[in-house]
Amino acid sequence: MKEDFVLKKTEAVLTTCLANHLAFYAYKHPNSQHIEIGIQKDMDLLKYTDFADLDGLSGFVMAPFVSTEQHSSWFIRDDFNFSSFGDDEIELLSQYKNTIEEKEDKTVTGSKQDEYFTQIAAFLDELKAGSLEKAILSRIQLEKGISEVKRAALFLQLCQCYPHAFVSFVSLPGICSWMGASPELLFKSQNNNSETVALAGTLPINKDHIQETEWGNKEIEEQAFVSDYIERVFRDNAICDYEKIGPYTVQAGQIVHLKTDFRTDANLSFKNKARIISALHPTPAVCGLPKTKALDLIKRVESHDREYYAGFWGPVHANGDCALYVNLRTMKLSENHLSLFVGGGITADSIPQKEWEETQHKAQTLLSVINQFVSS
């Protein structure tokens, strides 16, 4: 009964924010069902270029895959922070309203299979020429939109269906609205302990024998690229004492990945953390290696703008703690459609049909919940 009460209050708060055009973030950490909500009462959103500029602030960040004039890195203040709330607080929240002209994004189109195969052929040409070790090709899958009044319920459904993911819902009225269930930590720091992960390699799940998954050379190599890159970042930032655990198999929705954990108790300043975050993003798992060449290939070949897909988001605290996750298994919410962004790591040994199927499996992380929600 208490859990139902909290869920109803959570839905009421988020629905009020959407109706009143308030900028907000809502999230739950992996392995937790506790939902945090932060709300900014005005639209004076902070754009930032250097994560170090957020030192001493408390709120939530949302950064794009690549910062551009069109897609900035945003910081949302927590003028209101609801971890538990009552009717009086919801009534207080109702007093704040913003007038926003919502702009429907009419430029987004889904990725057709033949277009995807043309793009992957261009990737393979460069990979086989030896100029790249790995590059990530993404696509957009368009689904029918849902009304604003149902979005809070969809977020809560994601929280329940994916207990091991970082589930988040961010709304920046007049700018964008995104929701996702990410399996990948970018960087977390708490009480002088910092950690990151290498998450790469993807196969469909065998629910009966997850830990007996047989990984091929392509997936093992793909995961090793990411692990090696993280170790280079640590060395470049004078972090020599760290713990490395893995690789091991983990489930993420209807698929499994290879994962390696990296942890250190090095006493990092906020500026140190910002430097590491900058070096890690975008990770080889969402971009490729070498990073500069992979980014150039993505810009030349992909026909869509990734926007905030493969960027990062998460809470930042005034004491310097943070928990940032790569924005994967994610969708952009617009008035008339949902844009699901999915991608996969391409190496010289990639088989186009299998890579397409991998993106289909990844799309099911959200689609399975959307379909349940629509049919309910």
Automatic annotation (TrEMBL):
Enzyme class: isomerase
Coiled-coil spans in chain: none
Pfam families membership: Chorismate_bind
EC id: 5.4.4.2
InterPro entries, alphabetized: ADC_synthase (IPR005801), Chorismate_C (IPR015890), IsoChor_synthase (IPR004561)
Superkingdom to which the source organism belongs: Bacteria
Single GO MF descriptor: isochorismate synthase activity
Reaction catalysis annotation: chorismate = isochorismate
Assigned keywords, A-Z: Isomerase
Domain Chorismate-utilising enzyme C-terminal: start-end pairs: 113-362
PANTHER family in UniProt: ISOCHORISMATE SYNTHASE ENTC (PTHR42839)
Family per record: Belongs to the isochorismate synthase family.
Protein name: isochorismate synthase
Provenance organism: Ancylomarina salipaludis
Lineage: Bacteria, Pseudomonadati, Bacteroidota, Bacteroidia, Marinilabiliales
